[in-house]
Amino acid sequence: MPEIRVTPLGAGQDVGRSCILVSIAGKNVMLDCGMHMGFNDDRRFPDFSYITRNGRLTDFLDCVIISHFHLDHCGALPYFSEMVGYDGPIYMTHPTQAICPILLEDYRKIAVDKKGEANFFTSQMIKDCMKKVVAVHLHQTVQVDDELEIKAYYAGHVLGAAMFQIKVGSESVVYTGDYNMTPDRHLGAAWIDKCRPNLLITESTYATTIRDSKRCRERDFLKKVHEAVERGGKVLIPVFALGRAQELCILLETFWERMNLKAPIYFSTGLTEKANHYYKLFITWTNQKIRKTFVQRNMFEFKHIKAFDRAFADNPGPMVVFATPGMLHAGQSLQIFRKWAGNEKNMVIMPGYCVQGTVGHKILSGQRKLEMEGRQVLEVKMQVEYMSFSAHADAKGIMQLVGQAEPESVLLVHGEAKKMEFLKQKIEQEFRVNCYMPANGETVTLPTSPSIPVGISLGLLKREMAQGLLPDAKKPRLLHGTLIMKDSNFRLVSSEQALKELGLAEHQLRFTCRVHLHDPRKEQETAMRVYSHLKSVLKDHCVQHLPDGSVTVESILIQAAAHSEDPGTKVLLVSWTYQDEELGSYLTSLLKKGLPQASS
Amino acid sequence: MKLYCLSGHPTLPCNVLKFKSTTIMLDCGLDMTSTLNFLPLPLVQSPRLSNLPGWSLKDGNAFLDKELKECSGHVFVDSVPEFCLPETELIDLSTVDVILISNYHCMMALPYITEHTGFTGTVYATEPTVQIGRLLMEELVNFIERVPKAQSASLWKNKDIQRLLPSPLKDAVEVSTWRRCYTMQEVNSALSKIQLVGYSQKIELFGAVQVTPLSSGYALGSSNWIIQSHYEKVSYVSGSSLLTTHPQPMDQASLKNSDVLILTGLTQIPTANPDGMVGEFCSNLALTVRNGGNVLVPCYPSGVIYDLLECLYQYIDSAGLSNIPFYFISPVANSSLEFSQIFAEWLCHNKQTKVYLPEPPFPHAELIQTNKLKHYPSLHGDFSSDFRQPCVVFTGHPSLRFGDVVHFMELWGKSSLNTVIFTEPDFSYLEALAPYQPLAMKCIYCPIDTRLNFIQVSKLLKEVQPLHVVCPEQYTQPPPAQSHRMDLMIDCQPPAMSYRRAEVLALPFKRRYEKIEIMPELADALVPMEIKPGISLATVSAVLHTKDNKHILQPPPRPTQPTGGKKRKRASDDIPDCKVLKPLLSGSIPVEQFVQTLEKHGFSDIKVEDTAKGHIVLLQEAETLIQIEEDSTHIICDNDEMLRVRLRDLVLKFLQKF
């Protein structure tokens, strides 16, 4: 029995370290290869030894697909390909391919240079790893090999984010990566056609949330920033260099312009300026409005937002600073946070989800005394705000996508177990499909029953279609043919053609039954009576009386002969071939009952 | 399968393919060479043009002098320029299901088709094709509309009058179908019918046919198309290039195994080497400017201009041209330059790598930044205050009949210091120049056409090996001007089928198979048997379901148990449906074994007689006779159904069913 098997190595009932193994029709695909922000030990990378203990990964995996450039989806890639060892193809979209190595390098720098980790992947490894990448276009069908094909769909979320359909023959799986079902200020909404996959693997970050309108959230955000700046406070917005940062910049830029505000807005690292450049060059991946107006005004050329310098943090007066990374787990955002945390005039706005174990998660869960490195305790007096700006689909959006794709079953990843449970029930109720939520290392097996494509000879098909296009529920007509199987070539042809192709002769099986009738009249007259009787009974059949005195019903021949001994009896010889078996048998039993008395 | 050929222009094709149940239009090219018969539309009133003498017949009859003007021995129509549309009568265009566009030059007739023929289908094109196509159309409409011309000549089109006119007017074809340019409203409406597609995207048409665009290497977003079903494949090759310029390289491999390959859009200048032409372009440009002259480059606002600017970027410093201003004047100049930078995914590898840095893929960004290249929507406005000479001006339209180029021709034509360099291959430069004669300015002809030449074509055909090639008739003979050049034509086996305008070709195609799906339940129930080594057979009796052109075989329904039983059956219910076919039989009956089997099943008193062709088995007790021959068995018995069925099943044991 063919089956689809799915095993999350990461992101199973968890957020972070996305890595999902899928086996479909004998092909093995790894979806995403992320790191976990909440861990600094072995647990930060997926356990690749699960895939194969002894063999080479390249032999086992047909391809690796990366959905987007966030590190929890691609952070383990150089480790996986260069240190564990994988030489097969890695698929991602063009923007992902462009931006991914930059974020990896950034990540490496923080890990190695700042934290002094040894045995981490090197810059060269990132380069070598990226050489294995094959870029895909949206909607392009990429033939990984003769049987396995993949196709990318627009996912919103961040620049270049894609959902992927993985297809072998008539079996398919769709993996959403992270996606967003409502267009935001810089990206469009995710979209997929009614591709009816056997399985939809969807993220479920906001499985239980139904968010209010984006506009309200934006207004709230602007109000909070504005208030803090008015009272002379400093606002820290920890972001990832690409994604939310651009959306919030567009938001603040237009607000500053409209309100004619003077407080400076800074963007931390040089990376972000570069990031804006990516948005300019990959503008075809942004939303319709930006794409349409980019010739007149490129939304990613900011007037009010300037590059940040470390020294600015101590400047007096209000300011807004976007700093990386987004979960306050390291780097510049954490440094600024430590500097500003003690002042209640200041504010930190967390615009996205924070993984457990990060400073961001701690302060969002209400912790106000943080233990930092070196046993220092940091007291957080600054205002802590959370604004859900992460571009993940909320419960409504997830349901919407399930409705769009019409999968046979759904599997949840990239979310918290409790919330998943709720969504799982909802999906099962509303769509009447099975929904799974395996933990890491747990395998879900789905039996599939793919139909078998064969070639039917056009002659046979047309003959059938010509006989009646309207199916009759009471009397379904049967198509009859012979399936010729040669190697993997399956052809359905008419029986005659099959015989001919194989050089075989037809063997004709014929029956002739003697039916005795009591009828003293002449043979010709008997035949005439048989003819008129059959004619009246068999209205839908072609009944003919031939010049030689015999009667035919379709291709069945009936001849009347005199009985050798009894002149009062006539013998009807009914003769038919095996192909007319039913009708022949019916006729003999009909004639056996005798003929109705002639009315004349 | 049929091909309706609606355009006679080999590089601006418009064909309609009927394939299975679909009607597919391949490209929508607009033949603009017709405009060469018209007088230029000057942006600024030109005394020279408005004072041209009217043309009169040899006998002095001057009734046409309002419509026709004479200039240096050539006659021109003084009217709004008109275009030669694809044939609209050959096939009912409202039946066209989809239009596939291969590149932005081949979609210029789209508004005529989608807005005026009752077309209700979908148009498929890549994003760069649509965006740049829109720019080309916008420019064209703008060029024509901003110089309103009251006069629309029609008298000369009268067949009886046209005969009296001098060449080339006399020989112009289908003049009655020539049309004026469309409006921006029609352009927008036409473009709204386009659905964007990406390379290698498989697009299902009604479940019957699948179409796929492939990179063709000629321009940003340019594509060839595969039109296929499960058993047939047509490749449509239109405007392809193997040269490394800015677009993504051509995908040749996917064209393999085509039954038919339709080949259009080859180079129009097979004797010119594009690289050499670019070199000549640069050196002539430098020479003119150094001598204090101006250079005029009539061009389209997108395409080769990107490559020319890139060459100049590398060339100007070494040639000492750093101080010479380069002007690009077009209503869509800015858009074109901006758009070129955002299609990273459609560019060649080198340019893609630049975007990954991230840097703009085309160096004209730097030319603009350093003020070496300036662009203006028209020569009115800012340009007139910035204008410095000597300079280089890129502007349209390459036909020299409308657009800002008309003004520069009038302005610079009188001085031999200036040079006009023709790079676009679509118009004969001599014809383009005709209404400007006599001309003192230098004319250089450097046509740059990167499309396939005949050597590349024959290599391509050897590589992809289509069963049949279909092409415009122009490609099956040497060009008229070089009739001895037998190398300048398509050479393939079997010889290419050629078409001309308004012809219908029946494509040599025999469809033999169709895809059908066997449901898993049915497949499980099949009993394959090996007939020959490696070949197995299974007889299939199934219910055929056809929906949306997809065929599915389902298991036959279980015979329904008679329900109720109280209801009196009508006699006709018992009559078997003769359409239920029994399988065919094959094999032969070994008599001895057959007799043994009969005995085993309780028949006794069996007698076997030999005949000329086989045997007769007699069951004397049952008065039954079985004639067995090599290819037939005949059971003759009394009307004893039980017996007959028993014998039948015993015979069937020895035979194979088909």
What is the overall shape of chain B?
Answer: elongated
- CATH superfamily of the largest domain in chain A, by name, is Ribonuclease Z/Hydroxyacylglutathione hydrolase-like
Largest sheet of chain A: 7 strands, mixed
Portion of residues within helices of chain B: 10-25%
Give the N-terminus to C-terminus distance of chain B in angstroms: 32 Å
Radius of gyration of chain B: 36 Å
Largest sheet, spatial ordering of strands of chain B: 8-7-6-3-2-1-22
For this structure, the quaternary state is heterodimer
| CATH topology value of the largest domain in chain B | Metallo-beta-lactamase, Chain A
Shape estimate of chain A: elongated
Main CATH class of the largest domain in chain A = Alpha Beta
Please indicate the percent range of residues of chain A in DSSP E strands (runs of 2 or more): 25-35%
Unreliable segments of chain B (pLDDT under 50, ≥5 consecutive)?
A: 564-569
Brief write-up:
Chain B: This is Integrator complex subunit 9. Chain A is α/β, with parallel strands linked by helices and 600 residues long.
Write structural notes for this entry.
The complex is a heterodimer of chains A (600) and B (658). By secondary structure, chain A is of the alpha/beta class. Chain A has 17 helices and 30 strands. In chain A, the strands form six sheets. Chain A has a seven-stranded mixed beta sheet. In chain A, helix 3 crosses helix 5 and helix 4 packs antiparallel against helix 5. The longest helix of chain A is centred in the first third of the chain and has 21 residues. The radius of gyration of chain A is 37 Å and the shape is elongated. In chain B, the strands form seven sheets. Chain B has a seven-stranded mixed beta sheet with strand order 8-7-6-3-2-1-22. Chain B has a seven-stranded mixed beta sheet with strand order 9-10-11-12-13-20-21, with no helix packed on it. Chain B has 18 helices and 32 strands. Chain B has three domains: 319 residues, Ribonuclease Z/Hydroxyacylglutathione hydrolase-like (Metallo-beta-lactamase, Chain A, 4-Layer Sandwich), CATH 3.60.15; 172 residues, Rossmann fold (3-Layer(aba) Sandwich), CATH 3.40.50.10890; 73 residues, TATA-Binding Protein, CATH 3.30.310. In chain B, a hairpin with a 2-residue loop joins strand 4 and strand 5. Chain B starts with a strand and ends with a strand. Chain B is α/β, with parallel strands linked by helices and 658 residues long. Strand 24 of chain A pairs antiparallel with strand 25 of chain B, so a sheet runs across the interface.
